[in-house]
Amino acid sequence: MPGGAADHRAIREIVENWALWRDARQWDRFRTLWHKDGQMWATWFQGSYEDFIKVSQDGFDRGARIQHMLGGTTVDIKKKRAIAQTKMTIAQRAEVEKVLCDVSCTGRFYDFLEKRKGRWGIVLRRLVYERDRIDPVEPGAKLKLDRDLLMQFPEGYRHLAYLQAKIGYKVKTDLPGLEGPALDALYAKGAAWLKGKKL
User: CA 57 → CA 39, 40, 42, 163, distances in Å?
Assistant: First the structure.
């Protein structure tokens, strides 16, 4: 196994702890998963992990509720660098068009990791958004979406972006989906990372 079982295990623990500690808002533990220059990119945020912590806590304080569920993980290691891909689902609950709704979005975490001074950490977390849906929490509730707004967002995270835009976030509209140039570019960036190139 390239990189060795211990390296694979350490990386899987980082991925799993990210979801648990982020959703539980255990920020001191969450910080240990990153290198100092670590960056987080998502639909609603792109920046340092410290800023991500701040805006995540601020959002929670304002009522935002986001959870992450994980599936399988695959890890590619070359020397002291790695790319980890993990199946995941993002679940967010909020009021949309005056109806309380749940949005679920399935895709992958795509993590750029490096081993520095004997410790693996995240340098960049990107996401691939593959499919999503929105459902009223109350059975039988009628939800009517603004189709013009909905269609401004890519298919893979269209409903998640709609909800996030409605509660005040500026949503990035060119993130990788199930296929296409943005996904190809992310794969190329991952391959370059494993070859020792800068991000």
Answer: 17, 15, 15, 18
